[in-house]
Amino acid sequence: MSAQLEYTPLPQISEIHDRLRATYTSGVTRPLAYRRRQLLQLARLLQENAVAFENAELEDLGKPRQEVALVELGGTISSALRAAENLEEWMKPEKPTVEEWRNSWDTTIYKVPKGVALIISPWNYPVILSFNPLVGAIAAGCPVVLKPSESTPAISGLITSLVPKYLDPDGYAVVNGAVKETTALLDLRWDHIFFTGGTKIGKIVAAAAAKYVTPLTLELGGKSPVIVDTACDIQLAAKRVLYGKAQNSGQLCVSPDYILVPKAIVKEFNEAVKKTYEEFWPKTPFHPEAQWGKIVNPLHYSRVMTLIGRTKGEIIAGGEVDGVRRIATTVVANVQQADALMEEENFGPVLPILEVEDVDEAISIVASRPTPLVIYAFTDSEETKQKIVEKTNSGCICLNDTISQLGVHEIPFGGHGDSGYGAYHGKATFDIFTHRRGFINVPKEIEPYVAFRYPPYTEEGYKKASAGVHVKIPDA
After folding, report:
1. Mean pLDDT calculated for residue range 185-214
2. Catalytic: 410?
3. 216-219 and 192-196 as β-strands: parallel, antiparallel, unpaired?
4. How far is 19 from 379, CA to CA, in rounded Å?
5. 135 near 129, Cβ under 8 Å?
6. Which of 84, 96, 249, 328 is in Cβ range 3.0-4.6 Å of 39 for a Cys bridge?
7. Domain ranges for the chain
């Protein structure tokens, strides 16, 4: 029997907001010791309840325990511990280098919390995409309302029960619900909103944020392409692409969405995909040993099945279904740019392969489409790498692998253009919820040097004021 999620009564939503606002105003969340304690408590929450989270994701998504442990639990615990360890350094005021004549002004950048934040997380990776932004908000000193997805009731219910047991309930709260409850949240004034999800809802969130001029982080996904160059290890490329597509049954914002392969190697690549498929799932993905996950709900299942039914391409691997929302990874060859599989983000276990003339045509196709969250490319060519960097746009680029960029906390992760805006991971998540507040202290001793700026204006004062206009500009 599926878990039942109890929605938060609408009157309580504004009460929760007011409680967290009062906590922020009191200054409780600002001290280093408070932030560090909450971060360590969040790590304990995940560590001590790891099996419960694995069970909940298995119930909601059929996600293998190995994926939950590696990607969601381990990654988020590491993120919380890393933030706790580095927090003192992150919080330190900065003393920027200034022009010599302003050396005495005590020019400083203070790292201050933005205020009360709202985090709206999706159903596909409910632990890491709920708690990873929360790590940054806690580190920054921001109280948070966390809104997990109603599509994963077991996980959202578990989050709801655990957060007040481990974290300060006056600083961190969970609101559950669907459209009405989310609308009620968005009607309130926040100091930052962090949203991960689809473009359609992302636009609604952006419009709500604009009403109060609220800072916003949007991570929207999109059709992330794979470019396969003739200068690459074709078998390894097929293996790594298929691995990336298999994660969470393709329900991942950075899942490889389509593959562009030069015609000179497309036959070899297709054969490599078939070989890898047989190696990954020798007894079909639905065998108990395969631990194959399921599509989140009947609506999404129907959507993916409709895409497969509409494609004009040829299924060369997978395509089986089992009637309980499980669809085997379906690799489709000979797909054209106008095919149904190229209309929007597939967000499921469907992987089209498009034949192109060469890598230059592949790059041209990617550049002509909406900006993706990530571009994957398999190449040993420095020239090809530079072409991709210079001639395309994306949130990030990952060469010779898929989804590994998620594990590199030293680089920011986020969308660009159509795939969203704002970047996080590691210290960048702290930065999202932090306002860099400039400060100067202008000494009275400089008064003789700035006397020319005051009325009544004179010709001598004008000469001094306009000195910057007449500086020498060097030749290009």
Report:
1. 96
2. no
3. parallel
4. 53
5. no
6. 84
7. 10-220+425-435, 225-411
Q: What is the pLDDT of residues 423-476, one digit of tens each?
A: 899 999 999 999 999 999 999 999 999 999 999 999 999 999 999 899 999 998
CA quadruple 343, 345, 346, 349: dihedral sign: positive
Is residue 219 annotated as part of the catalytic site, yes or no? yes
7-26 b/e (C-beta count within 10 Å ≥ 16 → b) = ebeeeebeebbebbbebbee
Asked whether the CA dihedral 92, 98, 103, 104 is positive or negative, the reply is negative
| pLDDT above 60: residue 168 | yes
For the domain spanning 225-411, the CATH number is 3.40.309.10
- Rounded CA gap, 211 and 202, in Å? 15
Q: How far apart are CA 280 and CA 325, in angstroms?
A: 20
Q: What is the pTM of this model?
A: 0.94
pLDDT in tens, 182-193: 999 999 999 999
In the CATH scheme, what architecture does the domain 10-220+425-435 have? Answer: 3-Layer(aba) Sandwich (3.40)
Active-site residue, selected from the candidate residues 232, 253, 396, 398: 253
Q: Which of 186, 215, 223 minimizes the C-alpha distance to 350?
A: 223
Taking only the tens place, the pLDDT of each residue in 2-51 is 578 999 999 999 999 999 999 999 999 999 999 999 999 999 999 999 99
Tokens (6 digits) for 321 = 């279904």
Q: Per the residue annotation, which of 54, 57, 219, 355 is the catalytic one?
A: 219
Look at residue 1 and tell me whether its pLDDT is greater than 60. Answer: no
